[in-house]
Amino acid sequence: MSPGLTDGELTVLGLLAEHPRHGYELEKVIERRGMRAWIALGFSSIYYVLDKLAKRGLIEATGAPSSVKSRVTFQVTARGRELCASATQDALATLTPMRARVLIGMANSPGLPDADVVAGLTQRREAVRQQLTEVRETRAKQEPLPSVASAIFDYSEAMLAADADWTETTLNALMQEVAVDKYDVKKTHRALYSPPSKEFTVVDVPEFQYIAVDGSGDPNTSAEYANAVAALYGVAYTLKFASKKTLGRDFVVAPLEGLWRADDPTVFTTRDKDSWGWTMMISQPSWITEDMVMAAVDDVAKKKDNPALADIRLRTLIERTCVQILHIGSYDDEAPVLDRLHNQYMPEHGLTFNGDHHEIYLSDPRKTAPAKLKTVLRQPVKPG
């Protein structure tokens, strides 16, 4: 662009070079010719530009001053016409650098959830398509057009069509990538879900969210426990399918987990299960919301009557420093491992309890022999 003239100033100067016009007429010409598809020049901006051009001696008012500002007619001065011609020639020859804001958005998009990027690009695609339709409708109203006007519309249409194609291609690629790359909490947090089985390890557990149900009693005989587990799995799979359908984000349903509590921790080693309190839960991706959970609960309730559905909630768990180990074998064989954790490892390392006993059930007990069951045993701790 020639020094000293912005795009808006050159546009107004060029329209006045055609013949004298007042501000309201400039607005109508800009609107009628569809110029706002390629120049950001609002109605109020026109008068700001006119004032700037007049102060620089590039345009001047014609005739007696009008009492209505929008009816003051301006014409180009000799100096203004000369600068307009020079700047127009420069504009024809000079490449415009790419400054599309969407490029900044794409550069920053890795910091957003995929669903937000998909939503943003979807909104952009519809907006570009709408703008392209408006440009074509504006053109159709003025046909036949002089070759210069046709060339302007050709360029506007080509740019918008290219933008629409780019947005569509980018959006499709992103959605395919998201669909292929399923979120799996066990893979994303491998160290937390695949601990060694021969020794205790200390881990720092970040914040997770879960769908959860509270209860108490022996899990082997309690109807309350069976209902809770059935309700959790029903809602978990409903959330998975809803997320994939509405957000384009798929995930692997996480394993069942349990928080176990008692007034006396020794009941875990003596296996006095009737005195256990528990919270059964299934981890959820960060994009799952309370509203989505409630909708999933309603969907499951329509298909099956389960009293535990009414108790399902989305909850956050922050455990921080924990000691954990992988137990291979029957659930009832956990007692010696827990005894070693509670009465040897923790005292020797100056640690004490800092939360509920946590178990993660990596195996399906319906399909796995008891001797081969894999369970992560985790205990939140703090300095004793």
Automatic annotation (TrEMBL):
Residues 199-381 form the GyrI-like small molecule binding domain. Pfam families: GyrI-like, PadR. Residues 12-83 form the Transcription regulator PadR N-terminal domain. Transmembrane segments: none annotated. PANTHER family: TRANSCRIPTION REGULATOR, PADR-LIKE FAMILY (PTHR43252:SF2), TRANSCRIPTIONAL REGULATOR YQJI (PTHR43252). This is GyrI-like domain-containing protein. The lineage of its organism: Bacteria, Bacillati, Actinomycetota, Actinomycetes, Pseudonocardiales.
